[in-house]
Amino acid sequence: MTHDVSTPSSSDTTTTDHGRTFTSLDPRDGSVLGRYPIMDAADVAAIVDRARPAAQWWGELGFRGRRELLLDFKKIIATEADSLASVISAETGKPHDAAYFEVMLTVEFLDWAARNAQKVLRPRRVSTVVPSMNQKAIVEYLPLGVVGVIGPWNFPAFTPMGSISFALAAGNAVVFKPSELTPGVGTWLEKTWNAVVPDYPVLQVVTGFGETGASLARSGVDKIAFTGSGATARKVMAVCAETLTPMVAECGGKDAVIVAEDADLDKAAAVAAFGTVLNGGQACVGVERIYVAAPVYQQFVDKLTATLSRVRPGPDDTATYGPMTLPRQVDIVRRHILDALDHGATAVMGGLDSVRDRYIEPVVLKDVPDTSAAVQEETFGPTVVVEPVQDLDDAVERANNTHYGLGATVFSRNKKKGLHAARRIRSGAASVNSFGGPGTVPALPFGGIGESGFGRIHGADGLREFSRPHSVTVERFRPPLNLLSVDPSERDMKIAKRMFRMRHAR
């Protein structure tokens, strides 16, 4: 759940003290929320150096010791959920309940990582073959050391904690660089962690702009977990390439919803409307394209617009969603709408007048060319393109017609048919008759393909993402055939060849 984490313009954030600090602003009214240091390469390097002995202590603590402390961390977050939700709400502008739900998800995923790390990562024996029958073979998953996490602003607790929680559970220390738009969330998490583990800097935060993130990638950390736009991911990858630092990247999306002719239209419209305006459209798994079977197209559009007509953006907690957290995102949304309209699209609901200085009303477009920016680029606003299709085959082909591949949804009363269509969509995850399901299940891996990134967070794959597999063999007895010798005997080779032919040449 992502977007750009590059350096904002002066209209986004104000720097003072000769560029050594910056202010966090409330996007609802521009008021100052706090001031934070802009950390340079030397600052970041010092913090990573502090993390090294902490990582060793944390790794040697073992699964059970880490689990206890992680669950203590979880309990404090849950107890202080209103406090964290208030910080999220202030820095992103989203309503308090939406921020609180983000905290709820954050806690669920932290809990799963803490409780399942030992089961997933404990050493396990694997089978051997005849030439190595005298060996006990073990694969174990060891901590990487220090993991750098670069987080986004749209879900500033849930998204980065999807990496932080799993990296910590796997035995790593973490240095977290929150978005410059949401530094308060990062420092809240660090302060809360220090209340649980005060003596070792296992979780530290560095604040600043894009240069600070680049310094973290260049600091010698053992892996970078990045969430943000594909353009910024490429910049981070280039820095990581200097030292062959591995990286997992969760980037943007252009997720599609497919509505089959036999779908429950009321449910499909309600879910699609929610996905369209989720977090004001500022969600990488948000709904940006909908492909509807032609016979039920108009019925679906009527139900969708009726649902969206009840939506109200605003600065108060009773609003459906808040402002554009990143002010310049307004221009991107406006450009996509204008490009579509200029190329023959029709606004079924809303239009250019829906785009205001801070808030954007829902916009529904139809007859949008597949080459339009509104179809090919991540809009990251409360707009959606709705097009009729001939059948599911046509819908899947249209859904796959972008460089993105994060999530997708298929609605059909025939679950078997819906699942078959979902599997054909080029994406990292998909839901049938619901929205965003894989992103809310801690046991499922989450990530994309293509422009949506690579690697996985969450689930067993997420725990392994922050571990290194280590293979070990222990000799149980002397080999009956000694082939690993500079001069194996003629007898041993003769027997080995006979056994090989019996096993594989018959």
The radius of gyration is 26 Å
The CATH topology of the largest domain turns out to be: Aldehyde Dehydrogenase, Chain A, domain 1
Shape: globular
Major β-sheet annotation: 7 strands, mixed
Q: List unreliable stretches of 5+ residues.
A: 1-11
The H-level CATH homologous superfamily of the largest domain, spelled out, is Aldehyde Dehydrogenase, Chain A, domain 1
Percent in helix: 40-55%
Number of helix segments? 16
Structural class: alpha/beta
Strand content: 15-25%
Counted beta strands: 19
The rounded distance between the terminal residues' Cα atoms is: 53 Å
> Can you tell me the CATH class of the largest domain?
Alpha Beta
Give the count of structural domains.
3
What is the strand arrangement across the widest sheet? 13-14-15-12-11-16-17
Mean pLDDT: 95
In the CATH classification, which architecture of the largest domain applies? 3-Layer(aba) Sandwich
Keywords, separated by commas or semicolons:
single chain; 506 residues; alpha/beta; Aldehyde Dehydrogenase, Chain A, domain 1; Aldehyde Dehydrogenase, Chain A, domain 2; 3 domains; 6-stranded mixed β-sheet; 16 helices; 19 strands; 41% helix; globular; disordered N terminus
